[in-house]
Specification:
6-stranded parallel sheet; Rossmann fold; 601 residues; 2 domains; alpha/beta; 16 strands; 8-stranded mixed sheet; 21 helices
């Protein structure tokens, strides 16, 4: 294979195995690569030859090789084609092997465009001997020594912190990616030096393609790659993208107040070693943020200027809503809940068609993700549903079940009848606290069968998939089957999950703090008044008012679903229109301009 004149590398720590989390960094990296391939295939990117697309990330070859033992990610490249054993990319990979860096390549063809995946194995750098400053040491120590010499990264202190293993992984991965880039950029010079005669060497160099590399790094785990290349004087166009900031995450919902007061102090929970890596974004040519609040945080906490390039989702604008899929998935969820509730509590059978499923999904950051607000609003919703039943406006057999999908990691052996049967020993960490919060509010699903509650919350502490031991549904199927999604975050730089719900034509309720709420102003309305995506102000109004608004919004979707299917379908279409409007095309065009200097129309 002959390397094209332009090479775009998209790098991130989660660029390896695709997880079944929604809205993760992997989704963004994968969508960016595939959307770039789509623009090339459509001729929107007209440059000839077209740029080579490379996705770079970590390789976890077997159980236990992941630095995060709880996640236990295992890289699956079985569906990919092999990389041809020729050309500068292959030669760069071979050269890395001699330096103790093992790379696993694979090729994915999207829209007839090849995407090369390079997965770097970094967990055995301590076993390879190298020479650094005239002394023999292991590769891992040489990397840390060089990082200190180049930019003052104090790995001796950082690796002894509680998250030291994770920190070391990021530095090793960044080093490996930057070393690959270095090999590519210098491949022309290196190849010509093989010839002893100067004239022949110069002639050989003239025949070789000059490699122009652009590097797009997502999140702090790979920002050291940018810094190292800059310090080594390697000519690379670079972009660093923040999806959030570490000080902002630690402050959570208090970060808005910090921005308003220009308070740049960090809370005590900020991991200093990671924050140091995050600050290395300043070495990039351009820094981008996925939303305006994140842009303000970057300036506040690091003094770094950035521009906003929002996230999108991979959504075919021509694709019609799959109404049949939505019906089938809803039937599966309703039948599952009816059967499991009866099996576990041996109470009255709840007719499947009378069960109304809604969902919320995110990381298990209880306060940041607004789960207390959601639970309090579900208590209010229960009272509202009861009043409607007593007034004869709603069938007394209706039951509302809100799945709260939040987990520390995947569970390999969930209990029988999971998650309706959820013994405490099956839970860990914040999962236990969240389940206790559900019980403290009387929202446990056992109260549905005796009629003492009409609304319940069901904790789903699992990464959902078609083999998760519970619903056994993919994330898109779960979202398609629920009648609404609720995302009450108090700290949310963007919120991809709201768009993912819209992609499945499922209405949603989002907090004002989420990064895409401003885009709703341009949404084409199909229904007057409250639409398919409802924004609740959780910034400026009192707490009681905001939880009341969440409850009223959920009640609105429930009433519309039960009483006016035509109107409900229009709300579904509205949510879908927003997702289609916020596709990846414009963000990818912006990234392409930033990475290559080529102006896009």
């Amino acid at each position: 294979m002959m390397l094209e004149s332009k090479c775009i590398i998209i790098a991130g720590e989660e660029a390896g195995p695709k997880s079944n989390k929604m809205g993760g960094i992997w989704n963004v990296i994968d969508a960016e690569a595939k959307s770039l391939a789509s623009l090339i295939s459509k001729g929107v990117i007209e440059e000839k030859p077209a740029p080579t697309i490379i996705v770079a990330g970590p390789y976890y070859g077997h159980s236990g090789s992941d630095w995060n033992k709880g996640l236990n990610r295992i890289t699956d490249m079985s569906y990919m084609e092999e990389l041809e054993p020729e050309g500068p990319i292959f030669e760069a990979i071979e050269n890395l092997k001699t330096k103790g860096i093992e790379v696993f390549p694979g090729v994915e063809v999207v829209h007839d465009v090849r995407i090369i995946h390079l997965m770097f194995k970094t967990n055995d750098f301590c076993r390879f001997s190298v020479e650094y400053k005239g002394e023999e040491t292991c590769l891992a120590n040489a990397i840390k020594g060089e990082a200190f010499d180049l930019i003052g990264l104090d790995s001796m202190a950082y690796e002894n912190m509680g998250n030291g293993m994770e920190y070391s992984h990021y530095v090793n991965l960044s080093y490996a990616i930057s070393e690959f880039v270095k090999e590519l950029v210098t491949s022309k010079d290196s190849s010509s030096e093989e010839y002893g005669d100067k004239a022949i060497s110069e002639f050989a160099a003239s025949l070789m393609p000059e490699v122009h590399v652009s590097l797009h790094c997502h999140e702090f785990g790979v920002f050291y790659a940018l810094a190292r290349l800059k310090k080594l004087g390697i000519s690379v166009k670079s972009v660093a993208t923040y999806h959030a900031t570490l000080p902002g995450r630690s402050s959570g919902h208090k970060s808005i107040q910090k921005i308003r007061e220009n308070d740049s102090s960090w809370d005590s929970g900020v991991p200093v070693n990671f924050a140091k890596l995050e600050s290395l974004s300043g070495f990039a040519d351009v820094v981008t943020a996925v939303g305006d609040s994140t842009r303000k945080e970057i300036k506040l906490f690091y003094g770094i200027d950035s521009i906003v390039v929002r996230n999108g989702i991979d959504n075919d604008e021509e694709e019609d809503i799959e109404w049949g899929k939505k019906t089938d998935c809803r039937d599966r969820i309703q039948n599952f809940l009816s059967d499991k509730l009866y099996a576990v509590y041996n109470g009255k059978v709840i007719p499947p068609e009378k069960i109304i499923p809604i969902f919320s999904i995110s990381r298990i950051e209880i306060e940041n993700k607004g789960y207390p607000d959601l639970l309090d609003s579900l208590v209010l919703l229960d009272r509202m549903v009861k009043v409607e039943i007593d007034a004869g406006h709603l069938d007394d057999k209706y039951r509302v079940v809100c799945f709260i999908i939040a987990a520390h990691g995947p569970k390999t052996n969930p209990p029988e009848n999971f998650p309706i049967n959820l013994p405490e020993e099956a839970l860990v960490g914040e999962e236990i606290r969240l389940q206790q919060m559900i019980k403290a509010r009387g929202l446990e699903c056992s109260r549905l069968t005796d009629g003492s509650r009409h609304v319940s919350a069901v904790l789903y502490p699992q990464w959902i998939s078609d083999h998760d031991g519970g619903l056994n549904m993919r994330s898109d199927e779960l979202m398609a089957g629920c009648i609404a999604g609720v995302f009450p975050s108090k700290y949310e730089p963007f919120l991809l999950t709201g768009l993912e719900a819209g992609k499945e034509a499922t209405p949603s309720i989002v907090s004002k703090i989420c990064g895409f709420s401003d885009a709703l102003k341009t949404l084409k309305r199909l229904v007057m008044g409250m639409g398919g995506v409802i924004v609740v102000d959780n910034i400026n109004i009192p707490y009681l008012e905001s939880i009341a608004d969440y409850a009223l919004a959920m009640d609105y979707f429930i009433d519309t679903f039960t009483d006016d299917k035509v109107k409900y379908n229009l709300l579904c279409q509205e949510a879908n229109l927003l997702a289609k409007d916020m596709n990846w095309e414009e963000p990818i065009k912006t990234y392409y301009e930033l990475l290559t200097g080529t102006r896009m129309e």
